[in-house]
Structures are given as C-alpha cells and as structure tokens.
Amino acid sequence: MGNGAKAQTTRNRKGNTDKAKKPSSQLKSNIKAQNKICAWCLQPLQSTAKSAELEDHAKKHGKTFEECWPSFNLAEMKATEQANEAKKTKKAPAAK
C-alpha cells in the first residue's frame, strides 16, 4: 500500500471532510466582553481595558474618573494591575 492510500484511510477514519464548516462569528462574545460603560457618554469599553485607558476616556469629556466610572475604584484597579504585572515579571525566566 502506498502513502497516498494511507493518507486516504486516515481521512476516512477522521470522518467526513466533505462537510463544510459552519461560519462562526465572534460578534456576540465581543459584545458580552464590553462590560465597562461610561456613565457620561454610554460608550462601552472592553472588559480588559486598563485604568490608564479609562482615565484617558474620562479626560476626553473633561470629567473625573469617578464621574465616568462610578462603579470602579481607581486605586483598586491600579493595585490589581501592579500585582498582575509583578506576577508576570516573577514568572519570566532570568536572562543570562
């Protein structure tokens, strides 16, 4: 048996490859990820937005951080970001 036959038997074992994959979209998951909404302009931002991005957004309106994001504590966000950054640098191997 040649290599071509082996490849065909492998394809047959894996299943029907003639079926086309259904198109999938990430739009719904992207919308769900936008859970930080500005209280002033109602613009949604990604849940992964850092405190600096939120501060810049508030400065666009000439408002304070607390006016645009009343449900977020700036000091806690910065402390969490620093802790996460410390974990990343701790895990990184030392350069030789």
What does the model show?
The protein is mainly alpha-helical. The chain contains 5 helices and 2 strands. It has a two-stranded antiparallel sheet. Strand 1 and strand 2 form a beta hairpin. The radius of gyration is 24 Å and the shape is elongated. InterPro entries: At2g23090-like_Znf (IPR039438), ZNF706/At2g23090_sf (IPR026939).
Structural class: mainly alpha
Total count of strands: 2
Overall mean pLDDT stands at: 80
* Backbone CA Rg: 24 Å
Which sheet architecture does the biggest sheet show? 2 strands, antiparallel
- Order of secondary-structure elements: HHEEHHH
- Strand percentage: under 5%
Taken from the alpha-carbon principal axes, the silhouette is: elongated
Task: Please work out how many helical segments DSSP would assign.
Answer: 5
As laid out across the biggest beta sheet, the strand order is 1-2
Biased composition (Polar residues): 1-10
InterPro entries: At2g23090-like_Znf, ZNF706/At2g23090_sf
Region (Disordered): 1-29
Protein name: At2g23090-like zinc-binding domain-containing protein
Topology:
Blueprint: H1 3-14, H2 27-33, E1 36-37, E2 44-45, H3 51-61, H4 65-68, H5 74-91
Antiparallel strand pairs: 1-2
Features:
single chain; 96 residues; 54% helix
Concise structural overview:
The protein is mainly alpha-helical and 96 residues long. Helices cover 54% and strands 4% of the residues. The longest helix has 18 residues, at 74-91.
